[in-house]
Amino acid sequence: MTIRAATAADRGFLEEMLLEAYNWDGHPRFTAEQLAAEDHAWRYVDGWMRPGDFGVVAIDEAGLPIGAAWARLMTADRPGYGYVADDVPELSIGVSPGQRGRGVGRALLEALLEAAAPYGRLSLSVEPENRAAKLYRSLGFQKVGRSGGSDTMPFRR
């Protein structure tokens, strides 16, 4: 597996990974059409790549994308689920179902944390039952609040 920087050409794949992130438990809660119609969710990919957006994509040995982690700045008037402040990028991550549990998510997050160094912080939102929550805690994300059924977890260098 290799990790490369995300580009504007990755938008379609990021949309696929956003759907995987929302359907993390293997039970489809959203179709691609439903997710695209959900403004609060769609803002994580809408207009990708705008200034300030950054991300990474994991590529398998065959050259196919298998996961992505990306971040963008949200604003108080259009926050994401893990919104902390206008100057704290909020991350999204998705890994193809057949690749989960193989270290892809950790590799993506470590690369994204490195790319986020100029900001010094990142934030995210995760349902506590999602096994990714354990990964986030192991990398230094800490729960600071709850919004609906999800925990808001920022990371600070």
What is the CA–CA distance across the termini? 26 Å
Beta-strand proportion: 25-35%
Give helix and strand order, one letter per element, not per position: EHHHEEEHEHEE
CATH architecture assignment name? 3-Layer(aba) Sandwich
Structure write-up:
By secondary structure, the chain is an alpha+beta fold. It has one domain: 3-Layer(aba) Sandwich (Aminopeptidase). The protein is built from five helices and seven strands. The chain has helices at 11-22, 32-37, 39-42, 104-115, 132-138; strands at 2-5, 54-59, 65-72, 90-95, 121-126, 145-147, 150-156. Strands 1-2-3-4 form a four-stranded antiparallel sheet, sandwiched between helices. A three-stranded antiparallel sheet has the order 5-7-6, covered by helices on one side. The longest helix has 12 residues, at 11-22. It starts with a strand and ends with a strand. The model has no long low-confidence stretch (mean pLDDT 91).
